[in-house]
Amino acid sequence: MTTTSIPAIATKRIAKSRISEVDFNNLEFGKYISDHMLMVDYVNGKWQEPSILPFGDIMMSPAMLSLHYGQSVFEGMKAFRNKNGDICIFRPQKHSERLNKSLARMCMPEIPEELFIQSLHAIVETDESWIPTSEGASLYIRPVVFAYEPRLGVKIADHFKFFVLTSPAGAYFSKPTRLKVEETFVRAAEGGTGFAKCAGNYGGAFYPTQVARQEGFDQVLWTDAKEHKYIDEAGVMNVMFVIDGKVITPKLTTALLDGVTRDTIIKLAPSLGMTVEERRVSVAEIEEAFKKGTLTEAFGAGTAAVVSPIAAINIHGVDYTVPTVTSNSFQQRAKEKLNNIRLGFEPDVHGWNYIIPAAR
Ligand SMILES: *Cc1c(COP(=O)(O)O)cnc(C)c1O
């Protein structure tokens, strides 16, 4: 999809760009925020006109409802400079759908897809000089919606803000991680908010993750809240396994985040000669596959790293080692294919790329 123009958005430009402060050869994830931000208010029962202004502090009341009762959701996505020099935003429709599911679950007003995508388009185009061009680099996009209304009583807010920030991100090579199957703490229970990208899910996951780190692991492998028998996710990523030559991943439930990377890899797998099973995956099955030697890959899937190889999984106190990733590994091939599609080296048959043509 190529879009040359969107309706004009009121823009207050920064007096002096901060871009010269950025070390593009050493981009620490999330460290630098681009010059501008886009803001939209929800008042009187509707989303108002967006505006673009210099990134900076905003005024808010200490009684703001999101601080007290947690109505706050976000998205995480990326834009690239493709091989033709055009800008590619990856799968904005899918992110829009997920954001609206998160908003609905948190009793927050949905954002029309058109407003969402035009907002992304406008802010990315405004700060297009911040899109890094080195291999594997991208402009990370962070949309957030939160309750802005000041009031102490427990209530659903009537005033919200939607803003979009961007941040240049370098190639992210995740070193293989050591995971622990979590059997004490829970990230999300069925019927809860696990499928929503809401701020509280992260706050609640910090402590179990900190405990796992103190025990020498990098992350936890979350299991279902009821029995701790079935695998949900790996830290803040979806999890995938290759067992007996098939890709196996937990099926979506209300306790799992519907990752765009997960969905993308599932859709790419057939073209890489792999079948995918989306179903319940028990800890016992993984343990047995390790013992039989049929588990050849385990990895996390998410926007930040695309794939993040898992080095070892600790099950009931026993460490099982995952074979090392090679250039022939499914995760490696999937990552390359995905990157090639985004950068325009392979055809975008699924219509995932939202292209903003370069000014010529
Ligand atoms: C964002 C997120 C993911 C990954 O989703 P992507 O759309 O692939 O980035 C997975 N799990 C959790 C809990 C998340 O918050």
Automatic annotation (TrEMBL):
Key word Coiled coil present: no
Pathway linked to the protein: Amino-acid biosynthesis; L-isoleucine biosynthesis; L-isoleucine from 2-oxobutanoate: step 4/4; Amino-acid biosynthesis; L-leucine biosynthesis; L-leucine from 3-methyl-2-oxobutanoate: step 4/4; Amino-acid biosynthesis; L-valine biosynthesis; L-valine from pyruvate: step 4/4
InterPro entries per UniProt: Aminotrans_IV, Aminotransferase-like, B_amino_transII, BCAT-like_C, BCAT-like_N, BCAT_family
Alphabetical UniProt keywords: Amino-acid biosynthesis, Aminotransferase, Branched-chain amino acid biosynthesis, Pyridoxal phosphate, Transferase
Gene Ontology BP term (one): L-leucine biosynthetic process
Catalytic activity, EC: 2.6.1.42
Catalytic activity, reaction form: L-valine + 2-oxoglutarate = 3-methyl-2-oxobutanoate + L-glutamate; L-leucine + 2-oxoglutarate = 4-methyl-2-oxopentanoate + L-glutamate; L-isoleucine + 2-oxoglutarate = (S)-3-methyl-2-oxopentanoate + L-glutamate
Listed GO MF terms: L-isoleucine-2-oxoglutarate transaminase activity; L-leucine-2-oxoglutarate transaminase activity; L-valine-2-oxoglutarate transaminase activity
Enzyme class label: transferase
Highest taxon, organism lineage: Bacteria
Modified residues (N6-(pyridoxal phosphate)lysine): 197
Cofactor(s) for this UniProt protein: pyridoxal 5'-phosphate
One Pfam family in the UniProt entry: Aminotran_4
Family: Belongs to the class-IV pyridoxal-phosphate-dependent aminotransferase family.
NCBIfam families documented for this protein: ilvE_II, PRK13357.1
Role played: Acts on leucine, isoleucine and valine.
Protein name in UniProt: branched-chain-amino-acid transaminase
